[in-house]
Write a structure and sequence with these properties.
This protein is an alpha/beta fold. Helix content is 50%, strand content 8%. The protein has 22 helices and 8 strands. It has helices at 5-12, 16-25, 30-40, 61-71, 87-99, 118-131, 156-161, 163-167, 203-211, 220-234, 241-255, 257-260, 269-283, 294-306, 308-326, 329-343, 349-353, 362-365, 373-376, 383-393, 402-413, 437-446, and strands at 50-54, 76-80, 139-144, 171-177, 194-197, 381-382, 417-419, 430-433.
C-alpha cells in the first residue's frame, strides 16, 4: 500500500523540503509519488531491481520520474529508446551519463567506452560505478518509451530487468511505457518488475493542473472559469493534458480581448464567451495536428478579426495548404479516388470512369428523387474499387506496385482514410474517406483535377 505524505518523509530519508516541493510541483500524482518514494527508500538502501511504469500519454509518467531524479539529486541515466534504437547506442548512452561523459567536438564526440554487447555493458557499468564511488548508493537507469526495446535483440529486456543481479551493484531500472507489461514478456530469463500504473487524469484533475498556469494579471478563479469553458468544448474529443494546456494558452489572449479593449469586465462571462466561441470552433478542427505555431495562429486570428467576411473559410484552406504540399503526388490521386468511392454509388463507376463512355450526359445522371450522398456521409469501399478509380483518373499509366499500395496505409495512418473492414479473413479490407469536400477540392486543385465533375451529387 502506498504510504501517506507524512510517512514518505520519514521513510525516504530525504530532506522534507524536497519532498514537499515534489508534491507541490506534481499535483494529482500523490499516490504514485508515495509509492515510488517508498520503493526507493534511502540512498544507501537496496532498491527493487526494476520498476515498470505505464499509462496513456500525458499522464505524468516521465514528469514524475524526472522530477524525482532531479529534485532528490539521485545518480541516474535517462535514455529515450526512440533516440537510442540499437543496443550499442543504448548501452553507450547509459555509460556516458553515469560516468558524466559528454561527447563534444572537443573530444571528437567520443563516448566513455565502446560497448557492443550486454556482457561488455555489465562489465563497464561495474567499473563506472566503482570509479565514481557510487557503490553505496542506488544508481537509477530510466528508459523512456521502453516499448521500443522489444524491437532490439532478444537478450536486452531480460538482461535489463536482471541488471542488479548480473552486475552485483545496487541498480534500479525504470521502464516507462504506454503499453502494458504483458506485451513485454519474453520466453526465458524475464524477471517480473514492480508494476506501477498512472491512470488518466480526470476532468477535475486536468482543470486543477491547468489552473496553476494562471497569468499573474488575472485572478485564479477567472482563469479557472476560462479553462472550464474551454474543456466544455474540447473535453469530448481531447483528454490529453498537454494538448488542452496548449489550447488554453493559445486562446486565452483572444478570450480577454474585450477586457483589454475596455469593452467588458471580468464578470461579463456571456460577452467573453460570444467573442471566443467562433475561434474555439475553428481550433476544434486542428486538435492534435499542431499544423500552425502559436505565432501563426495568433496572426491568423488577427486577420480574421480584420476581415470577418473571409474568416469562416480561411482557416481550413490555410491548414490544408500545408497538407497538400506534404502529400506525395500519387497519394493525392489515391485520396481523390477514395473520396469518389466513398461518395459515389458503386453503380455509377462505369458511367464516370469508363473511358469509352466519353462525355457524361448530365440529364441522364440527374434524378429529382435522388438522395444526397454528401449528407449521408462516406460509405465503405473495397480496395479493388478505389484502385480501379485511381487508374482511371491518374494521367499516366501506373503499375500496381507495392509502393502504391503502401501509400494507402500511409493515408490510413494520417487519418485521411479509415479502415472499416471486419476480421473475417475471407473478406478484403474496406476503407472510408474521412476528409471533407472542401479538403478534397483543395487537394484536387494542386493536380488540376476537377473532382466535382465526377461526384454523383453534382452530376
Amino acid at each position: 500500500m502506498p504510504t501517506s505524505h507524512s510517512d514518505s518523509d520519514g521513510i525516504s530519508g530525504y530532506d522534507a523540503n524536497q519532498i514537499k516541493q515534489l508534491y507541490q510541483n506534481l499535483p494529482c500524482r500523490e499516490s504514485q509519488l508515495s509509492t515510488l518514494l517508498t520503493l526507493f527508500g534511502e540512498p544507501s538502501h537496496t532498491t527493487c531491481p526494476s520498476i515498470f511504469v505505464y499509462g496513456h500519454t500525458a499522464t505524468g509518467k516521465t514528469a514524475v520520474i524526472n522530477a524525482l531524479m532531479q529534485t532528490l539529486e539521485l545518480p541516474h541515466a535517462t535514455v529515450n529508446c526512440v533516440e537510442c534504437y540499437t543496443q550499442r547506442l543504448l548501452c553507450e548512452q547509459i555509460l556516458n551519463q553515469v560516468a558524466g561523459v559528454m561527447p563534444t567536438p572537443d573530444n571528437s564526440y567520443a563516448s566513455y567506452a565502446r560497448c557492443d554487447n550486454m556482457n561488455d555493458f555489465v562489465r563497464l557499468l561495474q567499473k563506472v560505478i566503482e570509479d565514481k564511488n557510487l557503490s553505496k548508493q542506488t544508481v537509477y537507469i530510466v528508459l523512456d518509451k521502453a516499448e521500443r526495446l522489444r524491437d532490439m535483440e532478444a537478450n536486452i529486456l531480460p538482461a535489463l530487468v536482471r541488471l542488479q543481479e548480473l552486475s552485483k551493484c545496487n541498480i534500479c531500472v525504470l521502464f516507462i511505457s504506454e503499453i502494458v507489461l504483458e506485451k513485454f514478456r519474453t520466453g526465458t530469463g524475464f524477471l517480473e518488475p514492480f508494476v506501477l500504473h498512472f491512470p488518466d487524469y480526470s476532468k477535475s484533475e486536468i482543470l486543477q493542473i491547468i489552473s496553476e498556469d494562471c497569468p499573474s494579471d488575472y485572478p485564479v478563479t477567472f482563469y479557472t472559469s476560462y479553462v472550464n469553458l474551454l474543456m466544455s468544448v474540447f473535453y469530448m474529443v481531447c483528454r490529453d493534458l498537454r494538448e488542452i494546456r496548449h489550447l488554453a494558452q493559445l486562446n486565452f489572449p483572444k478570450y480577454v480581448e474585450p477586457i483589454v479593449k475596455g469593452e467588458a469586465s471580468l464578470e461579463n462571462a456571456p460577452k467573453l464567451w460570444r467573442n471566443i466561441e467562433p475561434h474555439l470552433k475553428k481550433a476544434l478542427q486542428t486538435v492534435y495536428l499542431r499544423e500552425v505555431s502559436s505565432a501563426q495562429w495568433e496572426k491568423f486570428q488577427q486577420e480574421m478579426t480584420d476581415s470577418l467576411s473571409s474568416g469562416s473559410s480561411t482557416m481550413p484552406n490555410m491548414l490544408t495548404a500545408r497538407i497538400n504540399v506534404e502529400l506525395p503526388y500519387y497519394s493525392k490521386y489515391l485520396l481523390i479516388a477514395a473520396y469518389l468511392a466513398s461518395y459515389n454509388p458503386a453503380r455509377t463507376d462505369r458511367r464516370f470512369f469508363s473511358k469509352h463512355h466519353g462525355k457524361i450526359n448530365k440529364s441522364k445522371m440527374k434524378k429529382p428523387e435522388k438522395i444526397s450522398y454528401q449528407l449521408l456521409g462516406p460509405k465503405p469501399f473495397p480496395l479493388d474499387r478505389v484502385m480501379a478509380i485511381f487508374h482511371s483518373i491518374v494521367d499516366a499509366r501506373v503499375a500496381p506496385t507495392a509502393n502504391i499500395f503502401s501509400q494507402i496505409s500511409s493515408l490510413v495512418t494520417l487519418h485521411l482514410l479509415s479502415q472499416v473492414g471486419s476480421d473475417d479473413q475471407l473478406d478484403g479490407a474496406k476503407y472510408k474517406c474521412t476528409v471533407s469536400l472542401e479538403f478534397i477540392r483543395s487537394i484536387a486543385r494542386t493536380v488540376n483535377f476537377d473532382v466535382v465533375r465526377y461526384l454523383y451529387d453534382f452530376a
